[in-house]
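Narrative of accomplishments. A recurring question from our advisory board has been how the design workflow behaves on a single, concrete structure rather than in aggregate. To address it, we present the structure tokens for one chain from the evaluation set, followed by the sequence designed for it. No filtering or post-editing was applied between the two.
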């Protein structure tokens, strides 16, 4: 019998795990790697030179505003796993580009998941562990966790630090009184595209917020410290545009992307670019802006944490994990 199982090895789950070491938590992660959307992906190159290239396909950067997270960011900087991105950030609105106000934007070094690799040190993390259901056993006052390999484990306490929709699916077999009564709206998707050019671009921005368009964001990946020097751009679609293309095949998605890029009328010859990767983040953005950092259901020893409870930001995920861990400690010591 475990004291605590954490499902999800993103920032929230690992932040909680660090605070709960005395409970010797088991962290289960369905993916092959750590970090959730704090993710840099190694891709097969379609340009001359390197065989592979790495692109930040999830969170593009993060900011720090809360005092405790500022302290953590300073510590990570001293440990060499993150640094400032000094790129020029601008906004596009009605074909006009204006530069954004300066703000400290942090990126992992040399990849985004270097941060979560450091956070996971000393924790019992099992990757490629897909949980299929979590069932509260009232007579034993514990959770029964089923994994896709057919194995089962029991835990007295459960922290779901995975996307909202996945948490709901894991709890679907429970009676209403054993799961939270006030679920937020489902999370929104985001399609990410990676494109590369053989030639460097001369532009006065490295990151571009795009307002009221199918394309929401684009960034010059090679402007970030520690990345390969090749001209590589990452593009995120809006939630609405992502839902529009979600059921199309990749050739159809690419065809629509090039049309939308041309509509921005940027000083870029898109014919110089090659298609590198298309990735769907099915649960990328929270639909609701909750005013709570975590959810709990103490009657069944259940807690939920994640960026979906904290504005969809990396800082919010970290604060959510820390806050939920304190509640779990209070329950353990109570």
């Amino acid at each position: 019998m475990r004291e605590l199982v954490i499902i999800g090895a993103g920032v929230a789950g690992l932040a909680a795990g660090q605070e709960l070491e005395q409970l010797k938590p088991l962290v289960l992660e369905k993916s092959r790697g750590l970090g959730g959307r704090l993710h840099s992906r190694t891709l097969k190159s379609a340009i001359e030179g390197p065989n592979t290239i790495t692109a930040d396909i999830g969170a593009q950067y993060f900011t720090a505003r809360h005092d405790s997270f500022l302290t953590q960011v300073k510590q990570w900087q001293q440990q060499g796993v993150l640094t400032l991105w000094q790129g020029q950030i601008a906004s596009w609105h009605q074909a006009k580009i204006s530069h954004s106000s300066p703000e400290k934007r942090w990126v992992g070094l040399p990849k985004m998941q270097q941060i979560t690799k450091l956070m996971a040190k000393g924790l019992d993390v099992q990757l490629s562990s897909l949980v299929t259901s979590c069932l509260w056993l009232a007579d034993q006052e514990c959770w029964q966790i089923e994994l896709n390999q057919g194995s089962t484990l029991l835990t007295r306490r459960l922290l779901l630090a995975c996307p909202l929709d996945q948490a709901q699916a894991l709890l679907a077999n429970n009676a209403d009184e054993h799961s939270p009564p006030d679920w937020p709206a489902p999370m929104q998707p985001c399609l990410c595209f990676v494109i590369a050019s053989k030639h460097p671009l001369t532009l006065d921005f490295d990151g571009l917020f795009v307002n009221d368009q199918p394309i929401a964001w684009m960034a010059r990946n090679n402007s970030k410290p520690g990345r390969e020097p090749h001209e590589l751009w990452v593009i995120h679609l809006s939630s609405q545009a992502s839902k529009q293309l979600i059921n199309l095949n990749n050739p159809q998605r690419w065809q629509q992307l090039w049309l939308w890029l041309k509509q921005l009328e940027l000083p870029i010859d898109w014919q110089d670019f090659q298609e590198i990767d298309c990735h769907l983040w099915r649960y990328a953005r929270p639909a609701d802006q909750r005013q709570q950092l975590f959810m709990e259901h103490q009657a069944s020893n259940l807690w939920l944490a994640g960026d979906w409870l904290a504005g969809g930001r990396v800082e919010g995920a970290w604060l959510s994990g820390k806050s939920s861990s304190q509640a779990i400690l209070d329950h353990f010591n109570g």
